[in-house]
Amino acid sequence: MYRKGHYGVSLLVFAPIAFVLVAIKRVDLALVIGGVMLWLAMLPDVDHAIPGISHRGPTHSLCFAAVVGGVFAAAALALEATAGSAGVGAGVFDPAAVAGGLSLAAFGFALGALSVIAHLAGDALTPAGVNFLWPLSARTYTLGVWRADNTLANYGLFAAGVFATGAAVYLGAAL
Ligand SMILES: [Zn+2]
After folding, report:
1. Per residue in 153-168, pLDDT tens?
2. What does pTM read for this prediction?
3. Which phi-psi region, left, alpha or beta, contains residue 46 (left: φ > 0; alpha: ψ -120 to 50)?
């Protein structure tokens, strides 16, 4: 997919998360998650810019999702250490309040990995598909719904994502 389509898919994945977080009055967490997911929505397509790496190769895999998750987990641990020693940030980044006992590192991993997986899901809609299991397998998985350059699909997904997120926030706030 193109950028708009990927933003749309990321927002569709984010919508149920936004619903839950807004419903439990954690708008701050919803903003962090939504922001990161949109920020990273196009990350796997850095393979366009890296010589020697094929498009929809290594950066379009669950392996890459785990790597990005790992980077976020490490960043979360560093943030936790800094916030802990300085006494700031506590409460703001407190996922334990969301899913009792979930560590900040696990939260970071899930957020980083999910952001990449949302991109893979968008590309899996197109005939070229995604090799989720790289480097273990060369098989690509595709739903073959529409081509990546399909303008209607890209704008349609974007509109659906914006609508779903808006509806989720509205309904969550109404609870
Ligand atoms: Zn891609």
Report:
1. 999 999 999 999 999 9
2. 0.89
3. alpha
